[in-house]
Amino acid sequence: RLSITDFSASSFFASTAEKSEERVINLDHGDPTMYETFWRRMGDRTTIVISGWQTMSYFSDIGNLCWFLEPEFAQQIIRLHKVVGNAVTENRHIVVGTGSSQLFQAALYALSPMDATDPISVVSAAPYYSSYPLITDCLKSGLHKWAGDARCFNKSGPYIELITSPNNPDGFVRHSVVNQSEGMLVHDLAYYWPQYTPITSPADYELMLFTVSKCTGHAGTRIGWALVKDEQVARKMVKFIELSTIGVSKDSQLRAAQVLKVASDSCESHEESGSFFDYSYQLMAKRWKQLTEAVQQPGLFSMPDIPPQFCSFYKKIFKPQPAFAWVKCEGEIHDCEGFFRENKILVRSGKHFGDSPKLVRINMLDREQIFEAFVRRIQMIQM
Ligand code: PMP
């Protein structure tokens, strides 16, 4: 497995290798640097200044169940969901987290019975996001335990099912699959934004996770939010965040609030340059067209065909254009990740997602230059 350090090492190769065909193209991580161009264009609109004396207290809103939630950030979350129409925020508690990764852990903590003799099973339908099993079991908790592919789960009693929709790695719209009465569901909606998938209705689940990482591309700000119906579950999630980090960076929340504000403003202003989502939708559409054309020669690769749906945000029908390409190596190639590595493209094997090593996940959100180099490499491989 590549670490972040390896990532910077190969970016270095990418910029210094003399011949473009010798460059290592690293598309293993879902780093959303594609969005930098838009935010650069926004200039100072997202700049905030925080003086030395500000944001010093641990506390943000002592009257709120989530006492470390910055009110301005909460307001911008509600506004953006209203503008996009992708989630119901009424009668929900908002819990902020250091990325939705922390909120995922908080949700597991909150939903696991405290007095059970055995850890509760945590499942997700394969192919599932590769971090779920690693995060669930990293502390070998007595509270919860990874139990694999939800489609094979047949134990009775309580369980937690993770539903990622649209799904990482394959981009399909997902619903729960276990359907037993004692299931507790966590909906990870990191990619339920109109640049990736048609918005079909406002999501209205018990526990929903979102992140600025995939919405606006501000992964380094490390901010996510949960919309939680049940007060006791929200309280326990807050407790977890108190125990692990005594709250969430106020500086980051204020920066995220400003970014979400500018994203909402861009949708409402009808400027000629278009909204943030128009920009990112167009860029994703262009990339998917390029990739689809590049892999069209029959024989070597295939990709899933995801059905189009009507999007209430764009008021039109379109096919999902996921943040990742889920590519299958056809024929005799059994180690698809290895095949890409031989061609100096780093991607993540299907085996990390509970699927076959004939499949790989490829990041579609890298900078333009890297994506262009990737498409050229794919064309070269097939020649
Ligand atoms: N959920 C899913 C499905 C993801 O793909 C990611 C990021 N790869 C996350 C959660 C984590 O997001 P964050 O940066 O907010 O921790």
Summarize the structure.
With 383 residues, the protein is α/β, with parallel strands linked by helices.
Bound molecules: 4'-deoxy-4'-aminopyridoxal-5'-phosphate
In the predicted model, the low-confidence regions spanning at least 5 consecutive residues are: 1-15
Strand content: 15-25%
| Helix coverage percent | 25-40%
* CATH fold title of the largest domain: Aspartate Aminotransferase, domain 2
Layout of helices and strands:
Blueprint: H1 4-16, E1 25-26, H2 36-41, H3 71-84, E2 93-98, H4 99-111, E3 120-124, H5 131-137, E4 144-149, E5 159-164, E6 183-188, E7 207-211, H6 212-215, E8 223-228, H7 231-245, H8 250-268, H9 276-294, E9 301-302, E10 309-311, E11 316-318, E12 324-329, H10 336-342, E13 345-346, E14 348-349, E15 359-363, H11 368-381
Parallel strand pairs: 1-13, 3-4, 3-5, 5-6, 6-7
Antiparallel strand pairs: 2-8, 7-8, 9-12, 10-11, 12-15, 14-15
This protein binds 4'-deoxy-4'-aminopyridoxal-5'-phosphate (PMP).
Give structural notes.
With about 375 residues, this protein is α/β, with parallel strands linked by helices. It folds into 2 domains: about 5-40 and about 275-380, Alpha-Beta Complex (Aspartate Aminotransferase, domain 1); about 55-270, Aspartate Aminotransferase, domain 2. The protein contains 11 helices and 15 strands. The strands form 4 sheets. The protein has a 7-stranded mixed beta sheet with strand order 2-8-7-6-5-3-4. A 4-stranded antiparallel beta sheet has the order 9-12-15-14, with helices on one face. Strand 10 (about 310) and strand 11 (about 315-320) form a beta hairpin. It is globular. The model is unreliable at about 1-15 (pLDDT under 50). 4'-deoxy-4'-aminopyridoxal-5'-phosphate (PMP) binds near residues 101 and 211. Its cofactor is pyridoxal 5'-phosphate. GO terms for molecular function: carbon-sulfur lyase activity; transaminase activity. Belongs to the alliinase family.
